[in-house]
Amino acid sequence: MDVISSSIKTYNIWFEISGVEVGQHLYWQIGGLQIHAQVLITSWVVIAILLVSVNIAVRNPQTIPTDGQNLFEYILEFIRDLSKTQIGDEYGPWIPFIGTMFLFIFVSNWSGALLPWKIIELPHGELAAPTNDINTTVALALLTSVAYFYAGLSKKGLSYFEKYIKPTPILLPINILEDFTKPLSLSFRLFGNILADELVVVVLVSLVPLVIPIPVMLLGLFTSGIQALIFATLAAAYIGESMEGHH
Amino acid sequence: MASTVMATKPIALAKASPSLSPRKISIRAQAKPSSTSIPNLKSLTSKLLFSVPSIAMLAATPLPALAEMEKAGLFDFNLTLPIIAIEFLLLMVALDKLYFSPLGAFMDARDAKIRAELSEVKDTSAEVKELEEKAVAVMRAARAEIAAALSKMKKEMTAELEVKLAEEQARIELELAAAIDNLEKEKEEALRVLDAQIDALSEEIVRKVLPTT
């Protein structure tokens, strides 16, 4: 009993130092419903960063662009190219959706990795990337689902549902299942990547705080950027897929 | 690593409360309000979607109590989901108005202008070639004119000179002829005079030589 209690005490000390707070959220209440406040706060910061930087850089467009304008022109061209490759010729109306998806996820992930959130102490839970919460990623994945349904239905009308029996009617259950696995995989891929990267970095920092976590943090920056790109590309691909077919 | 993390969690929670079971109940109570909330279609469908893998996870983990608490911690769906969705849609509209549309229109206009100028430049280079050829032709014509004029002048000059030459020659010949005539006349005169003198002389000589009888 003494041994167990002393080892429990040791474990407690380690827990205090490591401060891994997985699954701890700051709860707010609206009506009878709860909100993960830390996700909301960090998402507001991300939105503020996006809107302010866009406003500053794109205010007076010059024919020969300034540095900021050049960066945002590059980003816009990148998004246009991505949309055009995946969706095809009718990519114009979808640029805001795909672009916002890419920018929101990218800035969220990098803000979670780069900004010193731990400085602000919350009464419960901690601030981190808004995409480390299942609610955010599932929200984005569901929006993508709605988007590709909307794309297919607005282009083809009710004959959009013919795609479920397209190659052969035997594939009907698989096609229906696909409509569930698409948002599932999108959300879990992003959620797992970001949360796991945060966990790895936190655990490493709790063990060897000085130099060792840096390569892992750099890897985290790289993969979180890639995850933003993958999410946006897949969203565009699903939209393009549901819009293709007879024109 | 993960096992130590997972191991520390229940112990810390045990530290926070006297025993494990009240904590379990409180978390379940916490999870309950969101599940009996106002029917929210998205959260209902998402619960349907994710109940399958979460149930699978539950069955798989060896510590069901721990997994249940983890589920409340990690897979905690609540009002955050629609709020984030609404925030995303508002952000999309805002970015479209501030960034995608204006900058996109500006870039397209700039591209169109550059393309127009480029095609213009291509046309003017053809014009320039035309002008060059015209210039060369004009130069050639001018040179030919000059050459023709030169040769014409030369011819005229030589013709004039020849005329003058011929005139002078004729005059000289006339004068020569006149001079020769003069000389002839004088010669004849001289001969006549000489003849006369010769006659006189011969008579004198005869008189002087022959005796006067």
TrEMBL record, chain A:
Q: Which GO terms describe its biological process?
A: proton motive force-driven ATP synthesis
Which molecular-function annotation in GO is an example for this chain?
proton transmembrane transporter activity
Main location as per UniProt: membrane
One Pfam family it belongs to: ATP-synt_A
> Which Gene Ontology CC terms are recorded?
plastid; proton-transporting ATP synthase complex
Q: Which UniProt keywords apply?
A: ATP synthesis, CF(0), Hydrogen ion transport, Ion transport, Membrane, Transmembrane, Transmembrane helix, Transport
Q: Which PROSITE patterns match?
A: ATPASE_A
Q: Where in the cell is it found?
A: Membrane; Plastid
Where is the chain membrane-spanning?
35-58, 94-114, 134-153, 190-212, 218-239
Using the record for this protein, list the coiled-coil segments as residue ranges, or answer none: none
Topology with respect to the bilayer = Multi-pass membrane protein
Q: What HAMAP family has UniProt attached to this entry?
A: ATP_synth_a_bact
State the family it belongs to. Answer: Belongs to the ATPase A chain family.
Its recorded name reads ATP synthase subunit a, chloroplastic
Automatic annotation (TrEMBL), chain B:
GO biological processes: proton motive force-driven ATP synthesis
A single Gene Ontology CC annotation of this entry is: proton-transporting ATP synthase complex
Endpoints of the signal sequence:
none
* Pfam families cross-referenced by the UniProt entry: ATP-synt_B
Taking the first listed entry, what is the main subcellular location of this protein, grouped into a coarse class? Answer: membrane
Coiled coil regions in record: 114-141, 169-204
User: In which domain of life is the source organism classified?
Assistant: Eukaryota
Q: Does the keyword Disulfide bond apply?
A: no
Q: Which InterPro entries does the record cross-reference, listed alphabetically?
A: ATP_synth_b, ATP_synth_b/b'su_bac/chlpt, ATP_synthase_B_chain
The protein's UniProt keywords, in alphabetical order, are: CF(0), Coiled coil, Hydrogen ion transport, Ion transport, Membrane, Transmembrane, Transmembrane helix, Transport
Topological type in the membrane: Single-pass membrane protein
| GO-annotated molecular function | proton-transporting ATPase activity, rotational mechanism
Q: Does the keyword Coiled coil apply?
A: yes
Q: In UniProt terms, what function does this protein have?
A: F(1)F(0) ATP synthase produces ATP from ADP in the presence of a proton or sodium gradient. F-type ATPases consist of two structural domains, F(1) containing the extramembraneous catalytic core and F(0) containing the membrane proton channel, linked together by a central stalk and a peripheral stalk. During catalysis, ATP synthesis in the catalytic domain of F(1) is coupled via a rotary mechanism of the central stalk subunits to proton translocation.
Looking up PANTHER family in the UniProt record yields: ATP SYNTHASE SUBUNIT B', CHLOROPLASTIC
Give the protein's recorded name. ATP synthase subunit b
